[in-house]
Amino acid sequence: MLGRDPLIEIIIPNWNGKGMLEHCLSSLRQQTYANFRVIVVDNGSSDGSIEFVEAFYPEVRLIRFDYNTGFSVAVNSGIQTSVAPWLLLLNNDMEVAKDCLDKLRSAIEQYPRFHLFALKMMNFHQRQIVDGAGDAVLRGGVGYRIGTMEEDSEKYQKDRETFGACAGAALYSKSFFTKVGLFDADFFAYLEDVDLNMRARRQGLSCMFVAGAIVYHIGSASSGSKINPLTIRLSTRNNIFVLVKNYTLQLFLRFLPAIIFYQLAWLLFCIKKGMLSPYLIGLYQGLQMLPHCHRKGRALQQSVGLIHPDNFAAMVIQAEKEAVVSIMARRTAAGKNNFLLSCYCKLFIL
After folding, report:
1. SS3 sequence, 84-137?
2. What are the C-alpha distances in Å from 334 to residues 122, 262, 330?
3. 49, 74, 169, 289 — which has fewest CB within 10 A?
4. Does residue 223 surpass a pLDDT of 50?
5. Where do runs of H (alpha helix) occur along 247-289?
6. What is the pLDDT of residue 225?
7. Closest CA to 11 of 65, 76, 89, 82
8. What is the mean pLDDT of the chain?
C-alpha cells in the first residue's frame, strides 16, 4: 500500500470503526495490484481507531478531526489533500476482494471517457446476495442501489452504464471533482452521493458499473442499523436538499405528482416504524434550510456546460425505471406484494 506516484488513493472515513477497519485494511494489504495509497480520515473516534492504525498499519496516512464532522467533510478533506489521479472512496465496513483494484485499473484503461466507476457491492454475511450494482435514482429525490438484497445473477455480472455510484464504494477521477465540485457538507451524511450523482449527470458525466470490482459490505455499521432516528431525520431533511438543489422549478412541477407519492409513502413508512418524531424533525430542519438550498440550486443552474433539462429529466426517468424493476424483483422473491409499486408504475412510469 505504498505505491510511488500512486494511480489510486483510497479514502476511508472512520468514526469508531476499529473492528471494521481491521477487515478493510487487511484486505487492502492483500491486493494483487500495489500502486495505491490509503488515507483514513478519522472523525473524532474514541474507540482506539487511531492507535490501532498507527500500531498495525503505519503505511496508512491519517487525517484526524476532533469531532464527528460527518461523511462529506471527512471525504472532502481526503480528496483535497490527495495527489493521485484516481480516488477510491471506501466505507470502513468493507472487505475488498483481492483483485478489486486490478479490475479498477483495467476499467480505467478500458473506459477512457468515464470519470466515475461504481464497484459491485456484495453482502458481507451472505456473499451470494448483491448489496449494490450501481446507483439509480427516484424522481422523489432519493437513490437506490440496484440489485440490493437480490441473488447475484447474470445481469449483475456484466459491466454497464448506470446513473451513478454509491459513495461507499466508488472510484472518481480527480478531475471529476474539479468539474462537479466536492460533496456538499450541508448533508452531513446520507444522500450526499445522490446529490453528487445528479450534479455529475447534469454536467454530462456518466458512470460505469464494474462487475468484477467486488467489495463485501457489512452495512449501517456506524449508525447501528438501517432504521434509526438519525437515518430517518437526515434522510428526510437531505431529501429536501436534493430536490431543491437539483430540480429547476419546471422540472419540480413536472415531477410533482411522483414527488408527492414518494413523500406520502415515506411518511407512512416512518409511522409504521415508529419514527414519526425524527421524520418531523427532519422535515422541519429541511424546510428551515430551504432559502439556503435554493441559493445553491440557482448557482448550480448557472454553471457552464449543463445538459438540457429535458435530457436530465429523461436520465432520471430511465434510472427510476431500473430502480423500480429491481425493487419489485426483490420484493417478489421475498414473497411480498408490490401493490403500491404497481400503482406507481401505472401512474408515473408506463
Report:
1. CCEEEEECCCEEECCCHHHHHHHHHHHCCCCCEEEEEEEECCCCCEEEEECEEE
2. 18, 22, 6
3. 289
4. no
5. 249-272, 276-288
6. 55
7. 89
8. 94
Q: Which of 225, 147, 237 is nearest to 186 (CA)?
A: 237
- Band (pLDDT 50/70/90 cuts) for residue 224 is very low
Contact between 120 and 212 under an 8 Å Cβ cutoff? The reply is: yes
- Count of helix runs (H) and strand runs (E) in the chain: 12, 12
Using an 8 Å Cβ cutoff, are 70 and 187 in contact? yes
Report whether 49 contacts 82 (CB < 8 A).
Answer: no
How far is 24 from 140, CA to CA, in rounded Å? 33
SS3 label, residue 255: helix
Q: Kindly report the backbone phi and psi dihedral angles of residue 117, in degrees, each rounded to the nearest multiple of 5, phi listed first.
A: -130, 135
Q: What is the pLDDT of residue 68?
A: 96
Joined together, the cell numbers standing for residue 133 give 450494482
Per-residue pLDDT reduced to its tens digit, 34-43: 999 999 999 9
pLDDT at 305: 87
Nearest to 1 by CA among 61, 78, 85: 61
